[in-house]
Design brief:
4 copies of one chain form a homotetramer.
Chain A (H helix, E strand, L loop, with lengths): L5 E6 L4 H11 L4 E7 L8 H4 L11 E2 L7 E6 L10 H7 E6 L9 H8 L13 E2 L2 H10 L2 E3 L3 H15 L7 E8 L14 H4 L3 E5 L5 H11 L5 E9 L5 E7 L8 H12 L5 E3 L21 E7 L6 E7 L3 H16 L18
Parallel strand pairs in A: 1-2, 1-4, 2-3, 4-5, 5-7, 6-7, 8-10, 12-13
Antiparallel strand pairs in A: 8-11, 9-10, 11-14, 13-14
Helix pairs in contact in A: 1-10, 5-10, 6-8
Chain lengths: ~350, ~350, ~350, ~350
């Protein structure tokens, strides 16, 4: 790909990740959105499902079968649905960016363990790059096949990576207590997301065994460590957003504030989308997801317990943007040679609900 | 029925109206809950679906076919589902109290007009009493067949009835602008109630043509008038509750505050569940539904526009209690000879979300 | 002003309207934001109060006294606070755009009637243009002094103006039943906005006598009519947004769908920020405020009651954008000769809470 | 005290804890509510502040100075405000039940460490019993001075106590990640609880250093252990409720499900207000606070990570009931010889927001 108006298409565009891709790409100066697929809504305008897209030129959904070759193909399908047809997608898109889980893991046995099925295309796993620019920017620049991280994994990895890389926690215990909005469950109605049941909920739906755990574990290995990772996920009554509260027990028994600062600054000083939030005062002195809705930021902050025995890291993002579509566009920018922030400049709102 | 422990059963107990009936009846000193039906959950404990019922003795759902004769049978089924089997229910329950729409209207043609189908048992319509005690208490006391009002109709009728009866509005225009919580849509998941789509919504889903209109019209006729009724329904982001904002244009061109007070006092002075809320100060100086969650109250207040040209009435209730199950238990109490408030004493919470 | 980087400053920048102005202007290619005032937070960065502004260059609050001459001065102060110092603001800004109520009315007696005080600078009232581009675009293009409409007035006027202009309702009754989010109450904590009291509320805080009524009345006069206007305002549990449900009784007794369409199309066909939303299907077939958060759109839709006796108009917008800061920037664009949509392109989010 | 109608009064009755005490006591067959104090609202009816109390007989607030001797005096004051006048309260109430923090700790140095001030009446500390019936029932039965636990402490202690007592964790690490509703911040408006800022928030306001930590530590000591306790508190967008997600690392390296069950059953089998929730299926298979609003239950559930290396305990309650007023009434019942559940029978609602 070379910087110009590139032809892009979105497969699975009626879902929430797909809709967010359309919002970002239809506004992107370097993207020419050609097609958006939905088997169910083929022929209907994309704005029937995503009413915010009314402000763009009309675009109808087409069937997945009808996707034409393009420069970059984005896939936003339920877990397990992209792998079976990946041969075809690889022929359709010069670059393929998959937001789903199918190609996030390098080892087929990881898939089997965490997704309880055999992988349909294990031979392709090595060809995909784990598309989190902050830990794999150079690989993303040249990758033809990119797998975006899980939303909860993205928040956790961005919070933990510098700590592992800088030796603060390589073998100690880490508890990730994640609070997650309802859009992470996708666009299909179900009992768990029926409004009267879901509104105002504080529901720890995954006390243990969250599938994103393995993504975090593998990412930590690339940072040089294997902390003892414990992930718990709680659904709360917002639509968009994740806050990962990460409780870290440092390897050395304790850690100083200066060392933590150093680790984060060394890793993220030049990152356009990771901000260290640690104000001394004000309501928003630590990261919060609600003001990040619609933005591609991951805000990170921390606090030490007396003597540094425990380090509490807060990592917040919008699960549909930095946790999915925005991060994918960031990868697209890198791969295509656009400035990394192109099309991702929305600063977020204040005040705002969630 | 005579005051003692009466055998009661609930058909359609897995829905929200049915669950609320169980909450009230399991705590009712005069009711012995025998059976609760759900085709889908037959054999499972009622607390699987309604977790608040864990605090009562275990009770399993049974199949509708297995309901045994009882003193009072409550039906809480989707519209159109009770009429077909009403012959059977009339043999099962000495008294039948139907929370659904099927027997609310006296005239078969009303059903046809508003529900777009022929009524399956038009011959039974005359045998049912419209079970709103505040306007039909004496009939309810002796009725064997009682049809509870629609939730939106209950709020509107209670707000309007005294005004029509006392001649304030008998032919003038009345606009009912109702704000309604998500539980009114029932327990079945659907796109309109999928949390990410429904949360925070202000959705005027019925600008015109709301089916409860005909109930209100017929009730006003019993009060001696036929105002020009215009109903609009807007879904908002709460779970329980209705606020009907009723804009009244008095027949005489204007009305005095004293006359409005007189109409309400004359009608509701001795009502246990209708309260006139019109404080001069405080946050809660007019009716609001959120503090009524779980209670059987209908709170009514009003304000006059300069000169009394327009009268704004506010009528608030919990759609599942005074708008459904609580009102049905109130009818049950009347019919059985219990004190009218038995089992309906919960005062509501403050503060509380919704 | 001529199209270039114009020097702009915001007085009252710590409030919600002021913060939204900063969000829009800091991203505006033709605006060079020089100063943002807050007496309370002088010296602090604007991002302390508005955390979404972290993504822009640092900007400190300064004291109102220290505002330097600029090309366009935006005022976002509590009602009654801009009038006393307007002499000074007129010397400071070549163009003054006031978001507050002080200069919205042409007649001093209107101010006295609705705001219960004497106007401090009645002689300036005539010099201000009522800055709603859809009804006064040409005046705005050349105005040096612009008063932005109230948020509730903006929604109502945009819904009603075409109907009055095209003779559908010039003397008939109009009921505006507005549902309003909490940000409209401003940034100062108070009992009515304390979260436990305000969350989940449906509170008709202004059944009659809403101050924006007079703005609507005056705007309708410019459209050639004087319908009998009745405004009722209800606070609901969202942060941003207004839905005005407007019940219209046509002068002729009834109106046809075709005539309503014609009125709206004739008025708004070329408007960049007014959209007629009237889809036959889909969840979002009529206007809703939640998907408009952060956007400058006013979405308008309607439905007729049988025979056209009543017309229900729905008008939705974000009170802080099209109802305040976004509309002000739209006026700024017109006055400065920028394309009208500059800096106002955000399409909104889906799904999203509110 | 002996079972009969006892004279009770509430000091600090305009706050949320005080209001909840009134709701429960006005409905309590053994309590005769004599006085309710509020300096600010003296002379006004309690229902002005707590509109749910309209359903009870009128009761005016009086000044604290005017409280007459009674059988049981409930104090619900901001932290630090009861201690200075405790001499007087001890003379006023035969039994004093304090919901505030002032007398929860036995050691004056604990107060100094966690509340950063000297205790005004250290000599009284020993005379107060820590009023959590599940761990101190017999002491409560005979205590004249009872200090109710903090809401977050109550949830944590009830979740942890059996595990410490039964040796599952006596020295290992325990992370308490608590999610808390806005009513826990009290009735006084502030910026942090201003609706536009607080709605939809996920705000980790106390990553470390939560004051309830010391209560939990001391309670664990009475159970025979001193786990390494780490408490983190996150405000979320609900009004009532706490979910404490408790991550436990067993002393033995791992623990079996059977042993955990045994510990909980042995401790809570006969408890009327603690329920072990661990269903295999259904939406509500683990504890959730929203269905507990208004109830006195603490629901506890758990899940083990593979091999039992980590144990995740979920403890849910209503911060104003089991976390404050309901628990106080439970203590009152014990002390007075009433059945322990008297006046605390409300089962909660489903469905419901929060």
């Amino acid at each position: 790909m070379s910087p110009a108006r590139l032809r892009v298409s979105v497969v699975g565009a009626a879902g929430y990740g797909g809709g967010e891709l359309l919002r970002l790409l239809l506004d992107h100066p370097g993207a020419d959105v050609r097609q958006a697929t939905s088997r169910r809504f083929a022929g209907e305008p994309v704005s029937l499902v995503h009413p915010n897209l009314r402000s763009f030129r009309p675009l109808p959904f087409c069937r997945p079968e009808d996707v034409a070759p393009c420069d970059a193909l984005f896939l936003s399908l339920p877990n397990g649905e992209s792998m079976g047809e990946m041969d075809r997608w690889m022929k359709t898109g010069a670059v393929v960016i998959d937001l789903g889980a199918d190609f996030r893991l390098r080892r087929p046995e990881d898939w089997r363990t965490w997704y309880a099925s055999d992988h349909a295309r294990p031979e392709f796993l090595e060809r995909f790059v784990y598309g989190l620019p902050e830990i794999a920017r150079e690989k993303v620049r040249t990758a033809d096949y990119i797998a975006g991280p899980g939303c909860e994994a993205a928040a956790s990895i961005l919070g933990l990576y510098p700590l592992v890389k800088h030796g603060i926690v390589r073998s100690g215990a880490v508890v990730v207590d994640a609070k997650i909005g309802s859009s992470a469950a996708g666009a299909a109605p179900a009992e768990a997301t029926h409004h009267p049941e879901r509104a105002g909920v504080v529901r720890t739906y995954k006390p243990t065994g969250h599938r994103h755990t393995v993504e975090i574990v593998r990412a930590m290995e690339t940072a040089g460590g294997s902390p003892s990772l414990h992930v718990t996920a709680t659904a709360i009554g917002m639509v968009r957003g994740i806050l990962a509260t990460i409780h870290v027990f440092p390897d050395a028994g304790s850690v100083s504030e200066k060392d933590v600062w150093k680790a984060y600054r060394a890793t993220y000083a030049d990152e356009p989308f990771v901000r260290i939030i640690k104000q001394g005062r004000g309501l928003y002195r630590l990261p919060e997801p609600k003001i990040l809705q619609g933005t591609n930021y991951c805000d990170i902050g921390f606090e030490l317990e007396d003597g540094g025995r425990r380090l509490v890291v807060l990592s917040a993002l919008d699960n549909l943007v930095k946790g999915a579509a925005g991060n994918a566009v960031q990868c697209f920018n890198l791969r295509a040679g656009f400035p990394e922030t192109t099309g991702l400049e929305f600063p977020g709102l204040h005040p705002v609900g969630s």
